[in-house]
Amino acid sequence: MEQQEKKPSKIEQAAEDLFNFAIDRQDVKRLMENLAAEADIKRTTVEYELPILKIISVGWSLSYYLTDGPQKEALANLYWTAINEFSKNLSTTTEMMTGQKIDYFDILKKRLDIYVNALGQHPDAQDPATVIGPEFARTCGNSDDIFTFMTGSKMFMSTIGRVKEYLEEIKLR
After folding, report:
1. Helix, strand, coil share (%) of the chain residues, nearest 5
2. I need a labelling partner for 133 at 20 to 30 A (CA). Which of 41, 80, 125, 139 fits?
């Protein structure tokens, strides 16, 4: 007897799509290629922080763009559960390769707190990217580096823009 594959619900599919988008590194590679040579920053730090910013920007977008309701909560829970599993695997792999124990999900939570706190300190900001960009540069080690500021702003704006488009396309927004 053939088993029928269970088709994921609209929310399950959306969570999977958003998770896959969040961990895709093509835009990280593009932003790193375009980071000005004169940027006064450790490039490896920027390359490490960009995927973190992308993952938390996707999660932040769900809260920002979706109205309160069961779909928002369900989608956010599924997304963050997938990110948590991904983080566990990444942490385990990193520990096996380096011998150092890390908790990638904890790193994500701490960065999210940093960015949310920065946004909270600037409630009148017309554009969240004007807060996120400088905070990204500070997190990378040089809050005065305009190139890093712009790289973080681009990642944030691109990510939240694409999440918004996706949510509209699947009619969740």
Report:
1. 75, 0, 25
2. 80
